[in-house]
Amino acid sequence: MEECLLCATPGGSLLWQDDFCRIVLVEGEEARAFPGYCRIVWQKHVAEFTDLTPTERLHLIRVVAAVESSLREILAPDKINLASLGNVVAHLHWHVIPRWRDDSHFPAPIWAAPQRPSPSRPPPPADVLASALAKHLDGSAAKAS
């Protein structure tokens, strides 16, 4: 097996984690075009959602919902996109992407060709997002340090 990017690196700026998964704020060009774009990465290297136990699946979906709720609360986007593809990186992870009607790709997926320039939007402060995540996750796991 080739080295897995999500096993070798956090995959973004760490906001929160527990023994099962981590939430990272995506960095780089995607972050500038879609501020608040987060990724939830399963800690153990598995490729598919059905590789998890039923209890693990519920935990992961609860974390995805907490990220969506936090982003809606802080950024008030027009839409949130949820995606778990794994075609390029076969390590279970979810994308949680705030979207606005005037963003560069709307209404198409962010992986399509841009339709217009991206308006400038400030990213959410990492500490504010981490606090919202902890609230939505009921402080049930360790916050990133």
How would you describe what is shown here?
The chain is an alpha+beta fold and 145 residues long. The protein has a single domain, classed as 2-Layer Sandwich (HIT family, subunit A), CATH 3.30.428. Helix content is 29%, strand content 19%. The protein is built from 4 helices and 5 strands. It has a 5-stranded antiparallel sheet, covered by helices on one side. α3 crosses α4 (126-136). The longest helix is centred in the middle third of the chain and has 22 residues, at 54-75. The chain starts with a helix and ends in a 9-residue tail after the last helix. Mean pLDDT is 92; it is low at 141-145.
List the helices and strands and how they pair.
Elements (H helix, E strand, L loop, with lengths): L4 H4 L4 E5 L3 E5 L3 H5 L4 E5 L11 H22 L3 E5 L9 E7 L26 H11 L9
Antiparallel strand pairs: 1-2, 2-3, 3-5, 4-5
Write down the CATH topology: HIT family, subunit A
Shape: globular
CATH second-level architecture: 2-Layer Sandwich
Helix content: 25-40%
Count helical runs: 4
Q: Uncertain runs with pLDDT below 50, 5 residues or more?
A: 141-145
Sheet with the most strands? 5 strands, antiparallel
The structural class is alpha+beta
The H-and-E topology, N to C, reads as HEEHEHEEH
- Which CATH first-tier class would you pick? Alpha Beta
Oligomer kind: single chain
Please list the strands of the largest sheet in the order they lie side by side.
1-2-3-5-4
Q: How many separate structural domains?
A: 1
- How many β-strand runs? 5
Query: What is the mean pLDDT?
Result: 92
CATH superfamily: HIT-like
